[in-house]
Amino acid sequence: MDLEKYVKVLNAIFTNAFKITDLIGANVNGQKININYDDSINLFNLVSSFNELYQSFKKEYANLTKLPLGQKIEILDYFEFTLNNDNYRVLMMYIDKPLVTNHPDTILYLREINGKLMPFVTNNLNKFAKGHYQDDIKLDEELSKKYLDLFSQYNQLLKMYNYFKNQFVFGDGSNTLVTEITGDFLEELKTFKIFFGSFDEITKLFINLGDNFGLAYDECHFIVNDKEVAIKNADFDYLFNNVYLNKVYTSEEEREKNRKRIK
User: What are the strands, taking DSSP E only, across 185-251?
Assistant: First the structure.
């Protein structure tokens, strides 16, 4: 298997240097393909930057005095915006068996408007739908603002997580790149998975997150024509460090910027 050629073709596609139709008949071993490295990031740097941010967040979250909210909490989103000259900060959380309402589960909007805490719980149904509720609640203001401060600081991390946890990142009909993140964001994220390639050549990379960051070689696979091909750990390292992705595919914000540029 010529990994250098394989990577060069993928990079030409994933960095937007070429479209798949441009590669037909191109000399991938020659000088005709110039990869767009300037606007791109390799997979190693993409995942390692995510892991570094997550490790930092975990330490700060561990030291945060927790609000008594419920049995299990899932962070859904965090956003800041201005509406009618009012400044909002909102942390959105799903709570199972909540202590802040009698419902079996709920969605908490930990909301601050112009510095004043105004949280509420809801089931997010349309307000005209049967069973809809939205109830104001009271929470410890000091602790609540510490939550908002923390997720304001790590807003980029949360956006990266929500984007990559189950994302069809790239596809042109012939080549794809798909990501998945396993684990619990507030407890422990475990694995960052990246599947990429074409119909007949697929690479599956499994990357351990946390202190043991790096490729989980026993879980990585290289598949050609539906059959697994044995390659060395060093080959998986080569793929992890040398496959690049244009930054327009690394977040919803970058995708939107790209859409506006090409309109």
Answer: 188-198, 201-208, 214-215, 221-224, 227-228, 244-246
Contact 221, 235 (CB under 8 A): no
Q: 223 has which bridge partners? A: 202, 228
CB 92 within 8 A of CB 108: yes
Taking the model in full, what pTM does it have?
0.90
Per residue in 231-257, pLDDT (tens digit) is 999 999 999 999 999 999 998 877 666
Which regions of the chain does DSSP assign to beta strands (E)?
40-42, 70-83, 86-98, 105-113, 116-117, 120-122, 134-136, 166-171, 175-184, 188-198, 201-208, 214-215, 221-224, 227-228, 244-246
Pairing verdict, β 40-42 and 120-122: unpaired
